Amino acid sequence: MCGIVGYIGNRQATEVLIEGLSKLEYRGYDSAGCAVNSGDSLSVRKFKGRLSVLADDLKANPLSSNIGIGHTRWATHGAPSDVNSHPHLNMDSTIAVVHNGIIENYMQLKEWLISEGKVFKSETDTEVVAHLVDYYYEGDLLDAVYKAMAKLRGAYALGVISKDNPDELVAVRNESPLVIGIGEGENFIASDIPALLKYTRNVYFLENGEVVHLTKDSVKIFNQDREEVKREIYNVKWDIEAASKGGFDHFMIKEINEQPNGIKETLNRRLDENGDIKLDDIKLTKAELDNINKVYIVACGTAYYAGLVGKHAIEKFAKIPVETDIASEFRYRDAFVDENTLLIVVSQSGETADTLAALKEAKSKGARILAITNVVGSSVSREADDVFYTWAGPEIAVASTKAYTTQLVSLYMIALDFAIKKGTITKEQYKTMISKLGETSDKVQEIIDNSDDIEKIAEEIKDSKDAFYLGRGLDYCLAMEGALKLKEISYIHAEAFPAGELKHGPIALIEEGTPVISIATQDVLFEKMVSNMKEVKARGAYVIALAKEGNKEVEKAADRVIYIPEVDDVLSSILTVVPLQILSYHVATKRGCDVDKPRNLAKSVTVE
Ligand code: G6P
């Protein structure tokens, strides 16, 4: 987590740093800081709190310089405070470092550096890097960074400047993301592309272990052996509008509204002239597919919940056993994986540390790796054998919405593609499902256009202490995603239960007025869900049902009903999630929460 930026050129560095950091706050926002070279010294400003604290300070007391580094933090080592904020410095304040990631061996390094006479100010792991670079520094910043790197273990993207090298910026990428922005007479580093878009669309992606030396007129990339490597420039296609709020109050509601388009893009880009699915990006042959006897879907957070739906789809259509697992569990549980295993990792950012580690673990055991990700060039996409890009466009709000729906579409497409190749569905079934998948985009639009009642329901439940979500089968997967959305942005305690488990404990939690969001979109399970709603209602629950249009029966068991358009049961998840997202959004805004930047969270969890 954390976001870093760096600039060298002719502009006022602090302006570029603040602009860049404002696009990276989704990565962490408990403190922010910057360091610039002011000629005779490095000037540093860093404060606990949002980026605005730093920006206001710089407005009141500007710093003039054409080179600098900046950081927005999500605390790992040491609480959010001015002193723990980045940049960190050596004792003479001649070397400044910003860091994203975790230095795993920082305790040993710290002890050693203290024995060498270094005095530490902060509790962070990052400060060791500043002292380490200083330890090796003999006038050549690149050389000192290389020597320091040899001692570091862990994940890190670094930006380093030195008072005595006013025309140089050195950056490193190792397991944490970093892109280089290429301008004319100016160059940039950043944790993510949106930070650069105001200035350039030309970027270099770095490989792990690479070090970059930037001046205002040159960018040199070196590998671990200090050999210069040539890299192709990647031209970012999406424009700055895609990474701004575009008239909406929050990124989250903007991204909810972008779902119809994301669904269309993800699907249509992979349909050939006959309307068949054409997965150019997946190179698995029919023979290879026939050898796959086990699929794992591994992910974290919302992506994990998408994976649960993916299990239903792949098992139903392609008839291959699927296990969906949380990446942080999978990586340590010695799961049975061999050459006949397909590991599907799902990750919006493509940078989630646990997902990446799970991928590597399975790869080392011979599994074939298929990545579903939203970020071109991300770590996950580079490690995988096959990559399926979701075309959601940049997702900025911490709570994931459009990434989830496009992940669902991707998983359905993969399931159908596998199924037709393996002959587990007929051509007719295949065609029908593709056409129904194509209709979901308009249906999602319909839900968004008619969501006023959802806002009214949000008003009714906004002061609740707890909320429960019930569902069966696919609807249980959606209940989990719905509960996650509510808790992460509104801070209401929200939990999901498989409705059949109610009587085995959860029903004891129901009190007068407790909202119970009951999802009943599956035809075969509908009656059972209605019974469960009646059971909780009889015990005082305030039942909010989610059902398909026409299923009026549900009104007898619920206090409020949200209808979704008619849809095939197996695809209902793409629709069902939308009212759940909208409900959470309104509850959170009515409670005055910062929906785009919920407390304690970050969008991209690049630490374990
Ligand atoms: C964080 C985010 C979630 C996201 C999860 C996995 O927890 O707040 O929105 O679902 O990470 O992220 P990924 O980028 O791997 O999908």
For the structure shown, list the relevant keywords.
single chain; 608 residues; alpha/beta; Glutamine Phosphoribosylpyrophosphate, subunit 1, domain 1; Rossmann fold; 3 domains; eight-stranded antiparallel sheet; seven-stranded antiparallel sheet; 18 helices; 25 strands; binds 6-O-phosphono-alpha-D-glucopyranose; Ntn_hydrolases_N
Verbal overview:
- The protein is α/β, with parallel strands linked by helices and 608 residues long.
- The protein has 3 domains: 3-237, Aminohydrolase, N-terminal nucleophile (Ntn) domain (Glutamine Phosphoribosylpyrophosphate, subunit 1, domain 1), CATH 3.60.20.10; 250-448, Glucose-6-phosphate isomerase like protein, domain 1 (Rossmann fold, 3-Layer(aba) Sandwich); 452-590, Rossmann fold, CATH 3.40.50.10490.
- The protein is built from 18 helices and 25 strands.
- An 8-stranded antiparallel sheet has the order 3-2-4-1-10-9-11-15, covered by helices on one side.
- Strand 19 (368-373), helix 12 and strand 20 form a beta-alpha-beta unit.
- Helix 3 crosses helix 4 (127-136).
- The protein is globular and about 75 Å long.
- The N and C termini lie close together (10 Å).
- The model has no long low-confidence stretch (mean pLDDT 95).
Would you summarize the structure shown here?
The active site is at 2 (nucleophile), 603 (for fru-6p isomerization activity). By secondary structure, the chain is α/β, with parallel strands linked by helices. Helices cover 35% and strands 22% of the residues.
Extended strand count: 25
Largest sheet: 8 strands, antiparallel
* CATH architectural designation of the largest domain: 4-Layer Sandwich
What general outline do the C-alpha atoms trace? globular
For the termini, the CA-CA separation is 10 Å
At the fourth level of CATH, the homologous superfamily of the largest domain is Aminohydrolase, N-terminal nucleophile (Ntn) domain
Multimeric state = single chain
Mean pLDDT score:
95
- Given the helix and strand composition, which structural class is it? alpha/beta
Any idea how many domains?
3
Strand-residue proportion: 15-25%
Biggest sheet strand line-up: 3-2-4-1-10-9-11-15
Unreliable parts = none
Radius of gyration: 25 Å
Count of helical regions: 18
Fraction of residues in H or I helices: 25-40%
Function: Catalyzes the first step in hexosamine metabolism, converting fructose-6P into glucosamine-6P using glutamine as a nitrogen source.
Subunit structure: Homodimer.
EC number: 2.6.1.16
Pfam family, one: SIS
